[in-house]
């Protein structure tokens, strides 16, 4: 399933990047996949996929007040 329409990234692309880099950073996932954030609408979804892949529940992903920019910095 495509999770980032700007960069045409799938959920599997994100999981592969997290597994390869063992990163918890959205920016590092983009970088690992050779792209960067454009509109930022996918940030929450990518954050959730990272959290699931690493087996952790991060508070920022469940915070409805956190903006996409906050998530990109996380
Ligand atoms: S949907 Fe991912 S940057 Fe726009």
UniProtKB/TrEMBL annotation:
InterPro entries: BFD-associated_ferredoxin (IPR052371), BFD-like_2Fe2S-bd_dom (IPR007419), BFD-like_2Fe2S-bd_dom_sf (IPR041854). Residues 2-52 form the BFD-like [2Fe-2S]-binding domain. Keywords: 2Fe-2S, Electron transport, Iron, Iron-sulfur, Metal-binding, Transport. It comes from the Bacteria. The keyword Transport applies. Coiled coil: none annotated. GO terms for molecular function: 2 iron, 2 sulfur cluster binding; metal ion binding. Pfam families: Fer2_BFD. Belongs to the Bfd family. This is Bacterioferritin-associated ferredoxin.
